[in-house]
Structure formats: C-alpha cells, structure tokens
C-alpha cells in the first residue's frame, strides 16, 4: 500500500511531466497551490492525467505564457466554474461526463479521451480561446495517436510507455552529476541598479593568476583569483552592500507604504528617513538605515549613500545581534540641536526568506553553478527521494598530529561498512600552527597531504573529498576570500583520490535544488572582540552570530582593519539569497539549528572537541553531531 508521501510524490511527478509536455514551467507557489487543490478536491487517481492535461491546455489557451505562477493559475481555475463544481461533487469515472452513458464506458476498455469542454473546463473562456484550446488539444492528440499507431500501440500502451519512460528517467539519475562545487572567484558579481530596479552583471575585470588542472569535472573551474583591485572598488564594495540591503528592506511589508494615506495602516507603516533629510528637523524622532563608521576621537556615526550623522550610543537598546564597525543597521532615535542622533534602539535589517527572494529575482543566477536540464521542482523531488545522501563535515583536520590519522582511519572504516556519504567536507586548518614560509615547513605540509591521500586510498570509496583552507594554511595573505590550497602541496591527493576537489574559502555546493555555503573562519570570537555595544543577554550567542550574518547578508561583517576582504570579490561573501544550509566552521563548540529556513551548523574543531564531526542530510534538511563511541571499561 502506498504511503501518503509516495502518493504526493507521484502526483507531483505527474504535474511536472504534464506541464513540461506543454512547455510550461511551474513556479513553487503554483506547484504547491495545484497540489493542495487536487488533494482537497479528491480527484480520483485514474482521472488525474486527464485533469492535469486539461488544466495545462486551459492555461495555455487563456494565458499564453510559459511561466506559471499562482496568481495566473488561480485566475484560470476560477474562470472554469464547471471544473470547480465538478471537483466538489467528487465524481467517479461514470459521472465525469454526464453525456456519456454507462454502456459506452463498458464497451470501451480503452481510456476515454475527453476534451476540456467534456469536463466543463472551457467555461469562462471566450469563443476564440475555446477554439484555440480545442485546436491545440486535437493537434496534440493526433500527433500522439500517429506516433503510437506507427509503433503499434493503443492509448493504454501509450500510458504504460509514458510511465515506463518516467520510471527509467528516475532510475537513470546519477546523483553525482547533481553535485557542483562553486569557487568564490568564479561567482558572478551582481550589483543593484536603482534606475531599473533589478540586479545587473558587473564582474571584476581580472584575469586568471595561475593555471592548474582539475581531477574531476565537478571541481571548480580555474579561478580569477587576483585579490588586488583598483581603488574605486573599495567604494563600490560598500555601496553594493548598502544598496542590496536597502532594496530588501523596502520590499519588506513593514516598510511598504500603504496604498491609501491615513487610517490605521499609516500608523503601522515604518518610514525610513535619508540622513540628508534630517537638517532643520531638530527634536524629531526618525528611523534611519546605514553603516556604522568610527570617527576620529573614538566616536561613531551612521553613514548612508548621501550623508553621515554622529551617533550617541550610551543609552541605546540593541536587539539580538553583534554590532561592529562597518555593519549595516537600523537606528531609531532623536535628532538634536547639536546635529547628532541620540540612538534609542539599534537593530539589524529584517531578513528575507530564500523563497521570497527567488519569487522576485528567480531569473538571476547569483551562484554561477552549471545549469541543470531538470527543473527545480524535479531536482527537489530527486533530493527528497534520495534520503540516504549525506555530507560528512570536519573542521581543523590537523595533518601534523598522529591522532588525527588514527581517528580518520576509524571514521573511514565505519563509513565503508555502512552507507557512504556523498562527500567528505574537510575544512582547515590542516596544520595546528600557522604556516611558516620555509623549505622545512613546506615539505612537512606536503607530507601531511601525502599521508592523507595514502590513507584514503586504502578504502574503496565513491565519495567526494572537498578540501577548504583555514587560517593556518598557505597562502591567502589573510584576505577573504582565500584561494584554494596550491597544487604543489596536494599533488599526491589528486593522483590517488580521483574525486578530490580543492576549493576556496568560502565556497558553495550546489546539490540538486539546494545551495550549501561552507565558510571556515573563527568568526564568533572576532565579532565579540569588536562589538560596539554589548550583545543582548536574552539570546544565546550562537543564534546572535547566525542572525548577524544572515540578516546582514554577509559572511564577514567586520571592519577592514580587523579582517581584510578583497574589494573586487566581496560579492562572494554575500548571503543573498539566503542559502539552504550554512556551515560556519568555527573553533567554537558545535551547534545546529534553523534560522529563516536556513539550516545553520558548526561542526566544531575536530581535535579540540574530542574528535566530533557533523553529518548533514539534505533530503530532510537536518544534521547530527557525531562522535566515535568511547570504549567501555
């Protein structure tokens, strides 16, 4: 007996297959609406194909657009009143067409083909739409009948053939082809263009600084990883951060101006005031947005695109978050005669769910991963069906410590005797002490990777091994993003481990419909040391860290004097849209929780946390903290 989940997945596949046949692409909200409607109205399974076929044809006839969103789909279904009435009556095979007799159904063992008009689906369409719909239906049916007649098939055989082809397509899925690692230096750069109200491409004009071979096609392409940029890039970097957050704020329902002035809606509307509009308005309270900047003498000011104003933070109440110089905040306070703002509250900009961002900018490829032939809905179905797929995440894999190899051997033995993960994500540092640039250090560092390659090669595995550099690894000059570990040190790994991928820090994984961000940085301690105001004591510090990063849409909300960032590649540190999973590999204790539908996790430091690690399951979007069981005495 099929489970409700299996039936739902079967219906979803039918929807995708039918709409794809008519060159229609369903947005997520339209897919969910159609699934809910079919479930609520109890459409019989034997009538599902015909019902979906007629809905798709009705949509094409009425809308004539390839992109199906919920609003248009609702309009089409509402206009087909007979169809709605037909669903509410919960029809059986004998009542779908009141003009067809029981004798006709009995005499014809083949599946009855019905026009949209047979089900009342053309109700609400004008004569031209009805003629166009019937013409398309006839053309499609004739083409199908000719094709299957040439193959000696009737309609029953045709349905079986379609089901068989669909099953073969699902069985032929090579899950490894749906895994892609995106290097930070390969991500496209998008900038907000306020004149056209959208993002425009503005890639940095850099060239490849080095050439190297990759051992697998899923590895990142050669990167344009020059970190030195022109002086104007610094201003452009902060302006891009500001404009990205501002456009997101202005689309938030709390900041959207009411359609009609006056009334209760006007009181609920939060209005941002540009700093240049403060002059001459002393004694009034304002809500402002900008970047925190330190002035001479240790004072702080708020700066937006046009002006800056001094802040007095002595009596401010801050919401959850870690506020440092160069982070972007909302400030509410009173403007005084001294041209300063007495800050009353400070908060982070409101976040935006990934699905909301994709509804607005779904046509923009922020990630830069290879394009998939399958739709996002098909990829989601595949991800949910492969429930055993997992990613094993370790941080601080010190290759200069013998205990590391002993523990790794135990871990590899354990996984080789059970379900293998799709990938092992090994984050640096791969050395317990900072790297010294001399011959002895280089030889020892290379020997560590050689020993790791020999250990991995002892276990026949089909898993990927993804390596992300850390603070002690060569040679990023402490500038983010950090390039991958140089090939000179990792040649043996590439030779013995064919599915090894050396990526930048940060980097991103595109798996099916999910985006996973990997960032190795001891970011929590850095933020705490640079806080302008004390952290809120009502929220645990890990959640304040995650909120600061996701709400601010940036992995490194620190001043450049504390953490240097490549001006021309700052876009690689953005979290926009919010990823499906965020790995903040930090030496802080391990944690995992969800925030804004993003699964956030920290595996902790492998050697200092008693050799624990994290396992992420993309099908269920959950993670587990794992540890080798200690022997009982």
From TrEMBL:
It is found in: Nucleus. Residues 101-110 have a biased composition (Polar residues). Its main location: nucleus. Keywords: DNA replication, DNA-binding, DNA-directed DNA polymerase, Nucleotidyltransferase, Nucleus, Transferase. Residues 160-172 have a biased composition (Acidic residues). GO terms for cellular component: epsilon DNA polymerase complex. Signal peptide: none annotated. Belongs to the DNA polymerase epsilon subunit B family. This is DNA polymerase epsilon subunit B. The gene is DPB2.
């Amino acid at each position: 007996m099929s489970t409700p989940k299996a039936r739902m997945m079967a219906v979803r596949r039918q929807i995708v297959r039918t709409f794809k046949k008519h060159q229609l692409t369903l947005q997520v909200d339209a897919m969910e609406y159609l699934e809910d409607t079919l479930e609520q109205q109890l459409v019989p399974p034997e009538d599902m194909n015909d019902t979906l076929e007629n809905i798709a044809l009705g949509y094409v006839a009425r809308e004539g657009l390839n992109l199906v969103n919920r609003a248009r789909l609702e309009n089409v279904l509402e206009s087909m009143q007979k169809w709605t009435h037909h669903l509410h009556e919960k029809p059986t095979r004998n009542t779908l067409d009141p003009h067809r007799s029981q004798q006709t159904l009995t005499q014809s063992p083949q599946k009855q083909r019905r026009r949209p008009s047979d089900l009342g689906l053309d109700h609400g369409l004008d004569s031209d739409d009805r003629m166009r719909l019937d013409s398309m239906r006839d053309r499609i049916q004739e083409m199908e009948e000719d094709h299957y007649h040439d193959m000696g098939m009737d309609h029953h055989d045709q349905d079986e053939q379609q089901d068989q082809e669909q099953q073969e397509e699902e069985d032929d899925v090579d899950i490894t082809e749906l895994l892609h690692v995106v290097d930070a230096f390969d991500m496209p750069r998008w900038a907000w263009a306020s004149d056209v109200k959208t993002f425009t491409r503005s890639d940095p004009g850099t060239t490849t600084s080095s050439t190297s071979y990759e051992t697998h096609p899923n590895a990142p392409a050669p990167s344009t990883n020059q970190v030195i940029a022109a002086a104007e890039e610094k201003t452009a970097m902060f302006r891009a951060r500001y404009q990205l957050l501002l456009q997101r704020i202005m689309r938030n329902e709390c900041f959207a101006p009411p359609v009609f002035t006056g009334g209760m809606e006007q009181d609920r509307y939060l209005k941002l005031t540009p700093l240049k509009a403060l002059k001459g308005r002393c004694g009034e309270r304002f809500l402002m947005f900008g970047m925190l900047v330190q002035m001479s003498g240790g004072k702080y000011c708020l700066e937006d695109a046009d002006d800056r104003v001094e802040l007095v933070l002595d009596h401010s109440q801050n919401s959850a978050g870690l506020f440092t110089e160069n982070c972007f905040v909302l400030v509410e306070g009173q403007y005084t005669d001294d041209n300063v703002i007495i800050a009353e509250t400070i908060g982070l900009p409101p976040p935006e769910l990934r699905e909301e961002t994709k509804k607005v900018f779904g046509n923009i490829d922020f990630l830069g991963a290879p394009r998939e032939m399958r739709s996002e809905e098909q990829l989601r179905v595949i991800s949910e069906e492969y429930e055993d797929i997992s990613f094993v995440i370790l941080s601080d894999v010190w290759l200069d410590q013998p205990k590391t190899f002993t523990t790794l051997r135990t871990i590899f033995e354990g996984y080789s005797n059970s379900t293998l993960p799709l990938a092992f994500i090994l984050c640096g540092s791969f050395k317990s002490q900072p790297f010294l640039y001399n011959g002895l250090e280089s030889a020892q560092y290379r020997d560590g990777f050689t020993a790791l390659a020999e250990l991995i090669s002892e276990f026949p595995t089909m898993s990927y091994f993804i390596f992300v550099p850390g603070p002690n690894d060569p040679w990023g000059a402490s500038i983010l993003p950090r390039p991958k570990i140089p090939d000179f040190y990792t040649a043996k790994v590439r030779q013995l481990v064919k599915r090894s991928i050396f990526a930048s820090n940060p980097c991103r994984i595109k798996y099916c419909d999910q985006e996973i961000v990997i960032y190795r940085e001891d970011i929590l301690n850095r933020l705490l040391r640079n806080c302008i105001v004390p952290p809120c004591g009502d929220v645990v510090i890990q959640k304040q860290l995650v909120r600061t990063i996701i709400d601010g849409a940036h992995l490194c909300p620190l001043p450049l004097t504390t953490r240097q960032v490549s001006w021309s590649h700052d876009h690689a540190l953005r979290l926009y849209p919010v990823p499906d999973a965020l790995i903040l590999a930090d030496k802080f204790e391990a944690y995992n929780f969800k925030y804004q539908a993003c699964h956030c996790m920290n595996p902790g430091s492998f050697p200092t946390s008693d050799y624990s690690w994290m396992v992420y399951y993309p099908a269920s979007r959950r993670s587990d903290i794992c540890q080798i069981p200690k022997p009982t005495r």
